[in-house]
Specification:
This protein is mainly alpha-helical. It has helices at residues 3-20, 33-36, 40-43, 45-62, 95-106, 117-120, and strands at 27-29, 67-70, 112-115. The mean pLDDT is 91. It comes from Prymnesium polylepis.
Length: 123
Amino acid sequence: ANQLYGNGAVNAKIADAAKAAGVERFVYLGVASELAKGPAKFLFGDYIKGKAQAEAAVAKDYGGTALVIKPGIIAGAPPGEIRPPGPPGMTAASPEAVARAAVAGALGKKSGVIDGNDAINVF
């Protein structure tokens, strides 16, 4: 699959359509700056570039009313699926904390950017 298109243009179109439909707030899951600026950019370049494009579209459409949650890795996997561990020394974000942060954004209680697993895990 085309990671750049699927994570960039597709998500940008979703943000644009939501704005056009009158949706007041938008929550988007990006990728942690720690990963985007580190060695992962070489392994997952198109994925990371696509996420950055989508984040720019969300910022353009929603400005200060958006919440961009930027986890490095999220703990867990679907039943029966085994995922590799994240980068050494990186604590995974708990799915529950990501969900609580997303709900806070959807309800207008939090906006801006939550960048990195440590910042997410306080939710």
